[in-house]
Design a protein that fits this description.
Regulates expression of the glpD operon. In the presence of glycerol 3-phosphate (G3P) causes antitermination of transcription of glpD at the inverted repeat of the leader region to enhance its transcription. Binds and stabilizes glpD leader mRNA. It is built from seven helices and ten strands. With about 180 residues, it is an alpha/beta fold. The strands form two sheets. An eight-stranded parallel barrel has the order 1-2-4-6-7-8-9-10, surrounded by six helices. It has a two-stranded parallel ribbon with strand order 3-5. Strand 6, helix 4 (about 85-95) and strand 7 (about 100-105) form a beta-alpha-beta unit. It is globular.
Length: about 180
């Protein structure tokens, strides 16, 4: 299990924010929307700065999130963790002993029930609940799975962070640069 020393995990949505991420005190970084051609050098540079990088495999432009794509991320890019909405991708990451984060969108009660079944079947290392501003759902997902929860999506204020953490999240992800400090 990874211990988040900081309760905020910067999420890179725009490459212009990469330098600010590296300058931060945060140990973990999330790459959301990236190009396959940039990944290797970005991850290598982040590792030189003693950062651990989680890649959202579903959002890498030019990468198919299948067994070969995941092997590429692990063996060639040298990522520290994989994030995905797909249970099969989480299973592949765990098979390769890479930290696996199941991204779970809670759109309605049916989606919640369906996603809980997937999480209980694939047993990710962590679950990212989106949107992360639904404290009761964060608590419910944690109680039903026993898996650590990261809150993400629509985190806009320090109060959003405090509410998510107060309801059981171990960390929050945000692309809002103002909340990285």
């Amino acid at each position: 299990m990874i211990e988040f020393k900081s309760n905020v995990v910067p999420a890179l949505r725009n490459i212009k924010d990469f330098e600010k991420m590296l300058e931060s005190e945060h140990e973990f970084l999330v790459f959301l929307e990236t190009r396959i051609s940039q990944l290797r050098s970005l991850v290598k540079y982040a590792h030189k700065q003693k950062k651990k990088v989680f890649i959202h495999a579903d959002l890498v432009q030019g990468l198919k999130a299948d067994e070969y794509g995941i092997e590429f991320l692990i063996n060639e890019v040298k990522v520290d963790g994989i994030i995905s909405t797909r249970g099969n991708v989480i299973t592949l990451a765990k098979k390769h002993r890479i930290f696996a984060v199941q991204r779970l969108f809670v759109l309605d009660s049916h989606a919640l029930e369906h996603n809980l079944k997937i999480c209980n079947r694939v047993k990710p290392d962590c679950i990212e609940v989106l949107p992360g501003i639904i404290p009761k759902i964060i608590q419910e997902v944690h109680e039903q799975t026993g898996i650590p929860i990261i809150a993400g999506g629509l985190i806009r204020t320090n109060q959003d962070i405090e509410e998510a953490l107060g309801n059981g999240a171990v960390a929050v992800t945000t692309s809002n640069r103002d909340l990285w400090d």
